[in-house]
Amino acid sequence: MKVSYDAHTDTLTILLKASAQVAESDEDKPGVILDYDEAGDLISLEVLDASRRVTDAGKVEFETMQ
Asked: Average of pLDDT values for 9-30?
């Protein structure tokens, strides 16, 4: 999994499956784009205008639960 923020385009991207190819994209809600592979599995999502929609788009906190 990879999370990236592009300050130039103000886009937050969460990539769930790096090796998968995008077969279909859907803007589920305005400003939230979901990408799916050929099997229909979610492989990434993009948040447009991220600085407006996310508390701190330039900061990522990762936590695993046991």
From this structure: 93
Residue 1 has pLDDT above 80, yes or no: yes
Q: How far, in whole angstroms, is CA 8 from its chain's centroid?
A: 16
Give the integer Cα–Cα distance in Å for 2 and 44. 9
Residue 26 to residue 29: CA distance in whole angstroms: 9
Is the overall model pTM greater than 0.70, yes or no? yes
Contact 22/39 with Cβ under 8 angstroms? no
Widest CA span in the chain = 37
How many residues does the structure list for the chain? 66
What one-character DSSP code corresponds to residue 5? E
Please state, in angstroms and rounded to a whole number, the distance separating the CA atoms of residues 36 and 61: 25
Provide the β-strand partners of residue 14. Answer: 3, 45
